[in-house]
Every structure is written in structure tokens, then in C-alpha cells.
Amino acid sequence: MNLENINKVYYMKKNLQVLKDISVSFKKGKFYAIMGASGSGKTTLINILGLLISYTSGTYTIDGINVSNMSNNDKDVFRGKNIGFIFQSFYLNERLTALENVLIATFINKELNRKERKQVARNILIKLGLKDRLNHYPSQLSGGEQQRVAIARALVNDPMIILADEPTGNLDEKNEKEIFNILKEISTSDKIVIVVSHNPIIKRYCDVLYTMNKGILKEVKHDF
Amino acid sequence: MTFRDRYYLALLNIRKSKFKSILFVLTTLIFFLILSIFFTAKKSVEDFFNDYLNSDFSNRIIAVEVGENDRNDIVNQIEKLNNKHISKVFHSNYELFLQAKIESEDNKINGYASLYGNYDGINYTINYGHDIENDNEIICSSSFYPGNYDNETSDSLFELSKYLNSNFKISYNKDKIDIDSISGDWNIDTIEEYSKNLKLVGTFDIKEDLTQYNMCYVSSEMLENILNSNKVFENKEDEKIFFDGLPALVLVDKYENVQNIINELNNMSYNAYLAYELDTESIQSVFNIINVLTIIIVIFSLVSTYLFLKNSLKENKEIIYFYKTMGYYDKDIKGIIMWQFVTLLIITFLINILAIIILKPIVEYILGKYPLYSVLSIHISIFETLLFCFLTIIIILVLINIYMKKLSNKI
């Protein structure tokens, strides 16, 4: 993933430039962390990376393909196959079991039939240590377990990129570590993991650390 | 994404926002019910008048103006036309029916009825017993209400099927008519009273035939015999004065042929017109009011649905965003939201139809208590309600498309 001079401006009464000349590359097999205060533009960057919103100027390429040349449908297809999202508030459907919550992400996978999709969803949950929680509803799961279900949902289509927006924002310290460990492990399997977080513990897990301040992204050298 | 997956997610959304779904169903149901009642009322009244035009033979009687010297000639000329749509030509309305006293054997029924002849062009639907086969037989409306009866509630409506095969005493007078040529005063004296015992062999369905409650049919031959002999005139001049100004009447076989016959008679230089013109103006004004109210409610309900949906879509922004993060296509998301609302609409439609079906017999029961309204059948108007349902679905589709486009442009 390569971003060159990416700018994002919200045109309002008083134009608001949220991202300023962002140039950065994200490579497979690495865990990237972006830290910054609220309103610094972290989530906007994640949304641009996830092809959810467009940028005002600059170039964004993935595997050499210029994103601006993609139609909305192409973006949807690409997103479904290659990008997994993890959110702070988990976004789990309270009326679905853990397995069903993961299963709904497989609906776009035309290569698998219903039975196979169910098997894939089950496997990923088991892999994330939720074997005994498959048929539990979100309300019956702890915060950490809920986030693991959300991670399973992000991983179920085997995406190349994982984008996580404050994934530990609602978790205690023990669960924070657990989630960061999982994300770290995911990155080692030749995937790009980009995590936006306030949490300073992330420094211990990430390979590359960036800070975001008033729309400007800077790499921070640190000892791992 | 398959239809099954989309529908699964649509149902999930309904369950997730249960309160809003119920609110949507209830609000839409109110509009559906109001519209259904309007549509049904309109259809029922319209059908009633259409049925009435076709069923009641009085709407098929053409009046032809005649002078007293040419009455017989004109009647003969019309008869000689041999038009297959002309069922019978009467010299005047005095040949059309006989007002007679009618009494049942148990004397419970005792009042006045109009006796008509069973001419070919007069159709009725026998619901009990059989049609007239002999001169001493009579058939009457199954819900019978003889004239001059004091009580006008349904309690006084007699179910005549209970009287099948019993005899009814029919009484009528022979009158002597004397008209003073100077003062113009009429003097009608009853010179003789007659009675006949006629056997009730059948009844006809008043709801089918939309006739009066005190109406009976006898054999046309017998009626003609009675009518030919129940008036005597002091002299020929009195007879002329008596019938002066009364048009000859032409009974047509079907309502659809009435206008052609009128045209044909007018082309023969007669002055022909419909004998009993229905007051269509006041009926039309009632329909106009119903139409205007219907349009107002349709617009109001569609605008409300639009606003509700718009608001709902805005609130669904988060879930749409979530679907997008999972790579769902716009068409899939549109499908999910569409099926979410279409399912609610279908539920509303079914509840509405069920409510109308339950209400129908209740309303009919209440109407049945009053002779004036009891002939009115409630015709549920499913088509119009379904049409409204489709209109709402179209609004849903348009709105979802606009909203998703707007959202895509923002993205």
C-alpha cells in the first residue's frame, strides 16, 4: 500500500483539511501503529486506506493499482476480499451468535457454499480461542471475547490488510495485551496490520510507529 | 450475495430495531386502514349502483310520449319493430304493475305489495323454491317488507323462505272512474273487491336483484287479465283524460341496449327517454368527495412514509457503513434495506386485509339492521390497496437509491 501526498479536505463553510501531504508505504508482514490525539485525522486515514472515503488529492496505490481508477463496485469487491476492519465498539449484532456474526462477513464470498462458509467461520473462531463460545450471543461474552469475534469476522475472508480503529478502546489491560498479541501474530502471516490507537502499550507490539498530529503523519523511531 | 442472505440480514435488522419496526407497521397500518375503508366504501357504492342499473328493470324502461289518439298505434308500431332487445311494450304504467293487498295465512304478513308480471326482460335470481309455472303462483323477495307496515327496523323484515308453498291472499279493487268534464274532478269508486289465493313457490334474492322489499312477481298473463278489468270508465272521454299525458313504456332486455333503443325510437320521430332517470349528479358528487379525500390521504401517507424512511435511513448510516466495511456491494445493501421495509409493508398489508375481512361481516350485520342499507354489499377493494402498497414500495426504492447514491458520492 503506497500513499503519496494524500490530502483530504472537507469542503464546508470553512474548509477543513484533515490530512496533509501524507506519504507512506505499508508492507506485508508488518504491524503498523498510528497514534495521535482525537481529531488528528487517524480515523479519516483508516477510512481512506479502507477505500471507504475518497481523498482530495494525491495518489494511493495498492499492489500497483491506482485506487482512484477503481469504480465503487471495484472498491467494494476489493474491500470485501482484501481488507478486514476491526472497530472499537466491535459492531457485533446482539441478536446473532458469535458464529453467525462471523458468518455474515462471508456472504460476499461466492466461491464457498453455505456449509463451507460456516466451516470457515467456525475454524477462525476456534483459532482465536472461542471454541466454547461459538453459539454465545455478544451479551454472553466478555469484552475481550467480543473483540476476538470481531477480529474473527475481519479475518474470515483471509484479507491481505487488517485495519483496526482503537481495537482496545473498550478493553481492560489484560484483554488489551491479548488483542495486540493476536494482531501481532496476524501480521507475521504476511499481512499488513494497521492499528490506530491511543494506547501507548501498542509501542511494544508494533513494527513501525507513526504519530498523527493535525493531519500530518510522522514516523517515530523507537526501541522495540 | 444471494437473495437468501439479503433477506436474512433484512429480517435481522427488523428484529434489531423492533420498536421502530412496530412503529412503522402501526403508522402505515393506520393509513392502509383509512385508505382501505375509503376504497372499499367507494367500490361498494359504485358496484351497488352498477348492479342497480343492471339489475333493477326500472332502469331499463323507456318512456315514449304519446297522444291519446295515437297511443294504440304507437304501441303497435313499436311492437312491430320486432326488436329482439324490446321485451315488452306497455300502453302506460297502469299496465306495468298492480298495487295489491297481500296477506299470509297466519296473518303475520299483512300489507301492500307491488305485483309485476314475469316478462322475459325481467330477470330475478331465485334463491329459494322455483320460478312461476302456473297462474296461481307468486314469487316475492326473500326479505319481505310489505308497505304500510309501521316498524321500519329489520325485525319487521320477513324471511319469506319460511312461507314457501303457503298461500297468500291477494286483494285488489275494481274501480269505476268518472271525471267531471267541466270541473276536472276525479271520482274513483270501488265497485267490486276481488281476492285471489296465490301459492308462494319461490323467493328471489333482493341483494342480487336490488328491488324493493314489497315486490312480487306473478304470471304476466294473469297480471294482464287483472289490469285489463280492474278499471272501468264512465265514458270514452274519461278514459282519454285518465291516460292523458302518460307515456307508453318500453321494457328493454339489458341496460346496455337501452340507449340504442332510445336512439332508434327517436330516429323514428318519437320522443323517447329513460323513464326513471337515476340521480347520478348527487352520486357523482359523493364519489368526487371520496376521490378528493382519498388523494389527500394517499399523498399524506406517502409523504409520511417518505419522511419516516428518510429518517430511518439516516439512522441506518452506521449499519450501512458497517456493511461497506465488510465489502457488501451497494446493490446488496440496497437489497437488505429494501427487503427490510418491504417485509414490514407486506406484514402491514396482510394485517390490513385481515382487519378488513373481520370488519366486513360486522359492518354488513349493522347495515343489515336497516332495510335502506341492507342491500349494500361490502366489496373489499384489495386491488387499490395493493396498488397503494406498490406505490409505497416504489417510494422506498427511489429513496434508497437516492440515499445510497448520496452516500457513495460522499464516500
Radius of gyration of chain B using CA atoms only = 32 Å
Protein structure class of chain A: alpha/beta
Structural class of chain B: alpha+beta
Distance between the termini of chain A: 23 Å
Number of strand segments of chain B: 14
Sheet with the most strands of chain B?
A: 6 strands, mixed, barrel
Please state the average pLDDT score of chain B: 83
- SSE arrangement of chain B, N to C: HHEHEEEEEEEEEHEHEHEHEHHHH
The largest inter-chain interface, given as chain pair and residues per side, is: A-B, 26 and 20 residues
**Low confidence ranges of chain B:** none
**Uncertain regions spanning at least 5 consecutive residues of chain A:** none
Total of helices of chain A: 6
Which strand order does the major sheet of chain A show? 6-7-8-3-9-10
Helicity range of the residues of chain A? Answer: 25-40%
Largest sheet of chain A: 6 strands, mixed
- Proportion in helices of chain B: 40-55%
Shape of chain B: elongated
**Treating each run of at least 4 consecutive H or I residues as one helix, how many helices of chain B?**
11
Proportion of strand residues of chain B: 15-25%
* CA radius of gyration of chain A: 17 Å
Describe the structure.
The complex is a heterodimer of chains A (224) and B (411). Chain A is α/β, with parallel strands linked by helices and 224 residues long. Chain A has helices at 42-49, 72-82, 98-103, 114-127, 143-155, 173-188, and strands at 2-10, 16-25, 31-36, 57-62, 65-66, 83-87, 161-165, 192-197, 208-213, 216-220. In chain A, strand 7 (161-165), helix 6 and strand 8 form a beta-alpha-beta unit. In chain A, helix 5 (143-155) packs parallel to helix 6. Chain B folds into 3 domains: 3-53 and 281-410, no CATH class; 66-92 and 246-270, no CATH class; 97-245, no CATH class. Chain B has helices at residues 3-16, 18-55, 71-80, 206-209, 220-229, 236-243, 258-267, 280-315, 317-325, 330-368, 382-410; strands spanning 61-64, 86-90, 97-104, 110-117, 126-129, 137-141, 143-144, 158-159, 167-179, 186-204, 215-218, 231-233, 248-252, 272-274. In chain B, helix 1 (3-16) packs across helix 10 (330-368) and helix 10 packs antiparallel against helix 11. Chain B has a 6-stranded mixed beta barrel with strand order 3-4-11-6-10-9. A 4-stranded antiparallel β-sheet of chain B has the order 2-13-1-14, with helices on one face. Chain A binds chain B through residues 50, 52-54, 72-73, 76-81, 83, 85, 87, 91, 93-96, 104-105, 107-108, 153, 157, and chain B through 1-2, 5, 9, 12, 15-16, 321-322, 324-330, 332, 408, 410-411.
